[in-house]
Amino acid sequence: MESSEAPVVLMLGLPEGALGGIDLLSFTTTPRFRGVKGISTGLHFAFASPTTAFSERHGIWFDITNNGNPPDVIVTQWDAASEALVRITDETEILRQRANLGSIWNGLTPYRQEVAKTEGDDVEVSSDWSTLTASITPTLLSRLLGNGADWKVSSANSSRRDLEDIPGLVDQDLDLQPGEELHFLPIDLKQTWREGATGRERTDAAQDRSWALNNLTHNPLEIIGELQFCFLMILTINNFSCLEQWKRLLTLLFTCKSAVAEQPDLFIAAIAALRIQLQHCKDAEGGLIDLADEGGSLLKSLLVRFRKGLTGLDAIDVQDVVDELDDLEEYLKQEYGWQFGGSFAKTGLLELEDGEQVRMDTTAFDEDDETGEFAPQVVDLTPEQAKLLGVQDEVDLPQTLTRTSDESEDNQDLEDMDSRY
Ligand SMILES: *[C@@H]1O[C@H](CO)[C@@H](O)[C@H](O)[C@H]1NC(C)=O
Ligand SMILES: *[C@@H]1O[C@H](CO)[C@@H](O)[C@H](O)[C@H]1NC(C)=O
Ligand SMILES: *[C@@H]1O[C@H](CO)[C@@H](O)[C@H](O)[C@H]1NC(C)=O
Question: The AAR2 C-terminal domain covers which part of the protein (predicted)?
């Protein structure tokens, strides 16, 4: 059987009706499900959860190198006792599983990532995994996840983090610690100047965080890679530590000025990566990522501030960045109805008549802007004024993850698997 040569990831021991997934595809497992075959070369992420309802998810990154003969067989096993997906590294066991492949071949589902998107009558097929992971490397995964045999990521119990059930609760309230096991780039937005800096230098570095960006890593591609990693760990397994880091990375990038002229390619890559990520939030069925609340005002205010910073730079140096930013804003206008420019840029904290407060200022997440230039002001607005300012029209960014709509459909046949992301 020629096709049995294809690279395979085995996901053994998953109970029937569990959630299984690889990359942008997820599915409900059937009794005969054993894994996925025909996986392309490159990095992939397999994940599982004992039920398709809100529960912990566990995933493993792996690299299909295809430089060996015979082709890669990655063996993972659901461990019922610890309710976790573990990677089997024992060579004898791997050999045994490899020898057994023929007998379970029909329980392996073909790897497909194409998502058919219906736009009017046109059907567009996208295969974005490689774009979404373009800057993720084995080196990056080893830094983030440790050098062990497993590149494991999990999501803690999500019940407490089920933000959609608790209106008004923002994730800061949840007292999330940065993932203990994730070695993120150390971003401290409260101290973006060099040790010992005082006075003017400190103020400048608070307003333009280029020093902090430049000091983060010697390899700027790590920043893009981490942005991509964090996003995918939000999308696939709801890891909120990654959501926090994703926001920190974006905040740092979009509060830089001089660095934009110095390394425009980094910013072009970041904006392009963000745009394709936002497209996947949009595609997610049943609102996989809830476009609500704080996240959206964060991104909007960051983009407004970022563009303002660009106007102070030499246009020739940053023209390509401006073009990329134009594309992103155009996308947000088209898909989410965002308006850029105009009065919301500096409005501050708005208190509506009913006492509800709406953050609209450019520094909502920017405690250390020392200028006071955008210091929040509390303004009383009538509903009409609020309407004029477009307050109620705020459209927002990934904040909470909600469940896909069709998860109650247990016992789906393998062939009914659908792409959800
Ligand atoms: C965590 O999830 C498991 C099911 O996966 C559940 O039995 C348990 O009660 C949850 N714990 C908390 C603290 O929510
Ligand atoms: C995110 O993943 C890391 C590594 O698996 C884990 O330690 C952490 O608890 C997770 N955080 C959340 C909020 O799910
Ligand atoms: C960051 O700054 C510290 C102190 O100036 C320096 O020792 C370190 O090498 C810098 N790191 C990078 C990546 O530039």
Answer: 184-340
